[in-house]
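Lecture notes, unit on protein representations.

Consider one protein chain, 228 amino acids long.
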Amino acid sequence: MSTWLTLCGAILFVAYLLGSLPTGYTVVKLLKGIDIREVGSGSTGATNVLRTLGKGPGAFVLLIDCLKGVLAIFLVYWLFKFAQNQDLIPSTVNSGIWQAWMVTLAGLAVVLGHSKSIFLGFTGGKSVATSLGVLLAMNWQVALATAGVFAVVVAISRIVSLSSISGAIAVSIFMVILHQPLPYILFGVAAGLYVILRHRSNIERIIAGTEPKLGQKLQTETPESVNI
């Protein structure tokens, strides 16, 4: 049992490290030689990269941050397949239930890593793109439905943060509607609340009517106001 618990712990640690990889910071540092945390909104995520360097780098960061979430979940699937082949799973462990909980924990770990990167002094983005990657690996129907909500809201409002918050609320609803396992539903609730909490400064600006729309810059730029 100790070997199995060690393997599971190692996967969760790797998931956190994956989330911590500072994609936006690295891209901006390489292309412009600046610390993205000191410009724009202070975010290391795709929205601030878009505002700082344009659509190409912004899209690249969005893609990589999403793939970090996908890879974290695939590592769990790989672990269970490998462990089954090597007969490493204890007989007392229910593989189906345990895997669902491990997927949930790995998803939370990679999301936390993105927003609290060990490589950037526990700063980062708001984990929206990484959360989408986790959802894609968990259940692509939930992910696409959530992305659809994001797309509709951003098309109407042109406000990325409002779209992210809307998606964070919608994900739990879609998890229930599509009859996902309890651990996945709990992930939707926990990750959704975390994303919303990370957007609290954006919520204040939305209420005040000062939140920038796509193509605009923050009127008052502060390190806390990060988007994706």
